[in-house]
Specification:
Blueprint (H helix, E strand, L loop, with lengths): L1 H15 L12 E2 L9 E3 L1 H9 L3 H14 L5 E7 L3 E6 L1 H14 L13 E5 L11 H19 L3 E5 L7 H13 L2 H6 L3 H16 L4 H15 L2 H25 L16 H11 L2 E4 L2 E4 L9 E6 L7 E3 L1 H16 L4 E7 L3 H14 L7 E6 L2 E3 L2 E2 L10 H13 L6 H14 L7 E2 L2 H4 L7 H20 L4 H5 L4 H7 L6 H6 L2 H11 L3 H19 L11 H21 L9
Parallel strand pairs: 5-6, 5-11, 11-12, 13-15
Antiparallel strand pairs: 1-2, 2-4, 3-4, 7-8, 8-9, 9-10, 13-14
Length: 578
């Protein structure tokens, strides 16, 4: 990438000036907010000036003199601005050949190699069995899917894992509720079995407020489930089967797929080996009938691995933490010790994952750098948090239905992909860690900085390209053949804002991959689409009487490629027509 070339030139210049203090400095190259202020800006002179007791602007000028001695051919000029910023302007030739590279690479444009030779497991979505998808489940599902797409595009071998919540005390609660207020046959014949299960779960918690014995019964039934009680297992299996059927419908609508879908129950027979490892290293202790990991200097609160559900027996129920440890030990053994494990899970799990990662480092399962928690914020009502337990959630299918219905008002043929695209982009355009206040008008927005705006921009570009083909304008041969020198000469001072945005795509993808942050791509695509629509508004693109029409068509094709590649990374379809 051009950024790497510029960084190398700056480092060589600093060496020529004998600035030893610069050896360990990171060269920060940023894009100026105003496109007219250059293509890259560097503040290295301002950082070094204090260390070497020089005026930052004068130091910047010295650095520029050294860079110009071996100026990269991709650079047309370098200027010092303000208190000592070094601004780089890329050459017309660079932009022409960037357009050619985009057209040549097509679907591969923007692919990186930061993950070359590496494997990553991305765990996301991970819904709980017997609970339907709410709007709250959307975040982990679409953010995690986008991260998996970006890492794959960046060279990683990616395993997409759906770690289903199909185990735990909540199933004891559900079994009690089904036995008391419903039945397996009744659940099976229901037209809305998942919502019936949720209603039973909510009723359990309402009833338990006044009848505390229900909690004891739930713990007892989960103990029976862990021990293989046939009745408990039968009820549990029905809940799992019904849930998976519903989940698959939602995943299909969202265009989300997984390579593996191990439920927590899969690790039931793999927990004993973790306990053995813990005992060997002596990092856990007995406390009030439970078995907990205690962290040095009380870095984190103790983490429970086993809890006694029934003090009259020696049976101890497993915890979510122990199952997570077993899952990671299994993953490392199956996929290799160098595999990076990434969990896209809500912010409320931050302490849990800090404890898990610290414990896994003590156990030697991970080194710390290969275990990542990407935390997302919540969808909230203005008055507070949503809760399935309290029965105040918004079902995701209802939101999708509403969005698709609204999109149908514009175009029935593309309603599904536009409606789903609107919902996804509304989430992905934000930093994952931020909460979202649920608002029907905003989440169903089909205008402004939205998914449909990007999809419409792509459809507009494709329409222009179809027209160009009908009129016989072949941009590949005309622009990148003999005519290229004439084009550069004529337009040497007329580099479009669109060109100044297109070449940035690989950088944006790389940053999104390194930081596990899809919102960088979403933000970039909005800026890119805006530059294209401004370019479109300045005059006809397809015009046989305009000798530069082939150049404009080439840029239009390059735009459609980059926009589609970016939308694909976000899991959003790019329609040819709208």
């Amino acid at each position: 990438m051009i950024r790497d070339i510029l960084e190398k030139s700056i480092k060589i210049a600093l060496q020529s000036l004998n600035l030893d203090n610069a050896k360990n400095l990171v060269i920060n190259l940023e894009h100026p907010e105003e496109l007219s202020h250059g293509d890259y800006s560097c503040n290295i002179a301002m950082i070094l000036a204090k260390q070497v007791s020089q005026n930052p602007r004068e130091l910047a000028e010295k650095i520029v003199v050294e860079i110009l001695k071996n100026k990269p051919i991709e650079v047309s000029k370098i200027e010092v601005a303000g208190p000592g910023f070094i601004n780089f302007y890329l050459s017309p030739e660079f932009f022409v050949f960037q357009t050619k590279e985009i057209l040549d690479l097509d679907k591969k444009y923007g692919k990186g190699n930061i993950g070359e030779g590496k494997r990553a497991i991305v765990e996301y979505s991970s819904p709980n069995i017997a609970k339907p998808f709410t709007i709250g489940h959307l975040r982990s599902t679409v953010i995690g899917d986008a991260i998996a797409n970006i890492l794959h595009f960046s060279g990683y071998k990616v395993v997409r894992d759906n770690h289903l919540g199909d185990w735990g005390t909540q199933f004891g609660k559900l079994i009690v509720a089904i036995k008391k207020w419903s039945s397996v046959p009744e659940i099976r014949k229901s037209e809305t079995p998942i919502k019936d299960l949720v209603a039973l779960y909510v009723r359990f918690h309402d009833e338990a407020k006044n009848e505390s014995i229900l909690e004891d019964e739930a713990r007892t039934w989960f103990t029976k489930l862990e021990r293989g009680n046939l009745e408990a297992r039968k009820i549990w299996e029905v809940c799992v089967k019904i849930s998976m059927k519903e989940f698959e419908k939602t995943y299909k609508r969202l265009g989300v797929k997984f390579d593996t879908a191990y439920g927590e129950s899969f690790f039931e027979d793999k927990m004993a080996s973790v306990i053995e490892d813990v005992k060997k290293l002596g990092i856990a202790k007995e406390s009030e009938g439970a078995y907990l990991v205690f962290f040095e200097n009380e870095k984190y609160p103790p983490m429970m691995l086993l809890k006694t559900e029934d003090v009259s027996t020696e049976h101890r129920a497993s915890t979510y933490a122990l199952r997570d440890l077993a899952a990671d030990k299994f993953r490392k053994k199956k996929y290799g010790k160098d595999t990076i494990i990434i969990n896209e899970v809500g912010m409320e799990q931050s302490l849990h994952f800090q404890q898990i990662i610290e414990t896994e480092k003590l156990l030697g399962y991970v080194n710390g750098l290969d275990r990542v928690h990407v935390a997302h914020g919540f969808y909230r009502f203005p008055e507070g948090k949503m809760s399935t337990r309290k029965g105040n959630s918004i079902w995701l299918d209802e939101v999708l239905d509403e969005a698709i219905e609204k999109a149908r008002e514009f175009n029935k043929e593309t309603a599904e992909i536009v409606g789903v695209g609107a919902i996804k982009f509304n989430d992905l355009k934000r930093e994952s860690s931020r909460d979202i206040i649920f608002n029907w008008d905003e989440i169903l927005n089909l205008k402004g900085d939205s998914g449909p705006y990007l999809q419409y921009s792509h459809a507009r570009a494709k329409s222009i390209l179809r027209k160009a083909k009908e009129e016989g304008i072949e941009f590949c041969t005309k622009i990148f053949g003999i005519k290229i020198k004439h084009n550069i000469k004529k337009n040497s001072k007329e580099i479009t804002d669109l060109e100044k945005m297109l070449y940035r795509f690989p950088e944006v993808v790389e940053r999104a991959g390194k930081e596990y942050s899809p919102h960088y791509i979403a933000t970039y695509l909005i800026e890119l689409a805006s530059s294209f629509n401004n370019f479109y508004g300045k005059g006809k693109i397809v015009d046989k009487n305009d000798e530069d029409s082939s150049c404009k068509v080439a840029l239009t094709e390059a735009f459609s490629i980059v926009l589609k590649n970016g939308l694909n990374l976000l899991g959003i379809q790019a329609p040819e027509k709208m």
